[in-house]
């Protein structure tokens, strides 16, 4: 009987992975910020079609709504800066969202704007599941 070389039969470590499950979606760690949903797709799609930084402003508004658990939130300049949005670009983005009917805004000189998230005016932009 010939000697059996077990090392020759061993699989290479880069061969077929033992775990065949699909990769998981990244999740936040304890203490990290996250965006809470669900966010209506037609609302988000309408915001994405607006010019400039409107989509980034929309993300900040939905973040604040998720934190507060309410549709009426203050527009956080700090969160806008986190997304690289400068103050005046944020104002223009907020104005675009307001003109499109996605939000209503109460402006207060020297204070944060108070924003109410609204249903989109044109709800015909419904999309299917991804």
Give an overview of the whole structure.
The chain has 130 residues and is mainly alpha-helical. The chain has a domain at 37-117: Winged helix-like DNA-binding domain superfamily/Winged helix DNA-binding domain (Arc Repressor Mutant, subunit A, Orthogonal Bundle), CATH 1.10.10. The chain is built from five helices and three strands; from the N terminus they run H-H-H-E-H-H-E-E. It has helices spanning 6-9, 41-48, 54-68, 77-82, 87-99, and strands at 72-74, 103-106, 114-117. The protein has a three-stranded antiparallel beta sheet with strand order 1-3-2. Strand 2 (103-106) and strand 3 form a beta hairpin. The longest helix has 15 residues, at 54-68. The model has no long low-confidence stretch (mean pLDDT 86).
What's the CATH architecture name of the domain at 37-117?
Orthogonal Bundle
Q: Which overall shape is indicated by the principal axes computed on the Cα atoms?
A: elongated
Give the DSSP E fraction (strand runs of 2 or more residues).
Answer: 5-15%
* CATH class type of the domain at 37-117: Mainly Alpha
Straight-line distance between termini: 60 Å
Helix content: 25-40%
Please state the structural category.
mainly alpha
The CATH superfamily label of the domain at 37-117 reads Winged helix-like DNA-binding domain superfamily/Winged helix DNA-binding domain
- Strand segment tally: 3
Q: Describe the strand arrangement of the main beta sheet, using strand numbers.
A: 1-3-2
């Amino acid at each position: 009987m010939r000697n059996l070389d077990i090392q020759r039969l061993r699989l290479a470590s880069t061969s077929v992975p033992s775990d065949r499950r699909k990769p998981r979606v990244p999740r936040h760690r304890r203490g990290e910020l996250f965006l809470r949903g669900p966010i209506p797709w037609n609302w988000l799609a309408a915001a994405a079609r607006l010019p400039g930084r409107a989509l980034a402003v929309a993300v900040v508004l939905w973040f604040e709504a998720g934190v507060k658990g309410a549709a009426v939130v203050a527009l956080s300049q700090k969160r806008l800066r986190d997304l690289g949005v400068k103050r005046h670009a944020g104002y223009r983005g907020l104005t675009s969202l307001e003109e499109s009917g996605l939000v209503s805004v109460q402006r207060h000189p020297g204070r944060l704007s108070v924003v109410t998230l609204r249903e989109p005016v044109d709800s015909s932009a419904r999309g299917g599941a991804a």
